[in-house]
Amino acid sequence: MRLFALRSSALGWCAPRIAALVLTLCAALPAPSRADDRVRVALVPLVVHSADGRDFLQRGLADMLVSRIGRERRIAVLPIDDAKAATADADAAREVGAANGAAWVVFGSFTHFADGASLDLACTPVRESDGEPRRIYVHAATMADMIPLLDKVAERAAAIVLGGADAAPAAASPPAGGEPTPPDRDAGRVR
């Protein structure tokens, strides 16, 4: 009997303290957040035109674009890892975006020629098949020169996605040894 009485008093003493500890821990946990309201953007694998290292270039460019576009906190980038999905066709890209629950899709091509490189991206809403995609175009004299240009490309893509079709063209980077080429406002290209 005495053993039972000891256990009862120990439980009586511990139970309120355990309950207080559990409540304190629960209060310290972050509250469940509301639904993710970021704009979902599918990054479709780029079509790569190169004599060598196509897979390497495709994966590397995708990784760099995902990280750079993803800097914009209002955008959730959905990298599409299936190399067979690579396309420069807007309708095919929209299908990939729709299949992955995206509101927007970024797609295009990368061309590596001699020492130079050219990146031609397009951004379009998944649900709007009527309008022309907004285009972003950059070129560099060397592959090494292309990497810093990706920051501007990502900023431009984010501006298009967040600002819709009326986003103003971003300032162009100057070609090696020259002045910036003005944006082609009709096609929405940054040269």
What would you say about this model in short?
By secondary structure, the chain is an alpha/beta fold. It is built from four helices and six strands, in the order H-E-E-H-E-H-E-E-E-H. The chain has a domain at 39-166: 3-Layer(aba) Sandwich (Rossmann fold), CATH 3.40.50.10070.
What does this protein look like?
The protein is 39% helix and 21% strand. By secondary structure, the protein is α/β, with parallel strands linked by helices. The chain has a domain at 39-166: 3-Layer(aba) Sandwich (Rossmann fold). Strands 1, 2, 3, 4, 5 and 6 form a six-stranded mixed beta sheet that branches. Residues 165-191 have low confidence and may be disordered.
What is the C-level CATH assignment of the domain at 39-166?
A: Alpha Beta
CATH topology of the domain at 39-166, which one?
A: Rossmann fold
Helical residues, percent: 25-40%
Shape, principal axes of CA atoms = globular
**Low-pLDDT sequence parts:** 165-191
Question: How would you classify the helix and strand content by structural class?
Answer: alpha/beta
**Do you know the CATH architecture of the domain at 39-166?**
3-Layer(aba) Sandwich
Order of helices and strands: HEEHEHEEEH
Count of beta strands: 6
Distance between the termini: 89 Å
Mean pLDDT: 79
Rg, Cα atoms, Å: 26 Å
- In CATH terms, the superfamily of the domain at 39-166 is TolB, N-terminal domain
Summed up, the helix count is: 4
Strand count, sense and barrel status of the largest sheet are: 6 strands, mixed
Strand content: 15-25%
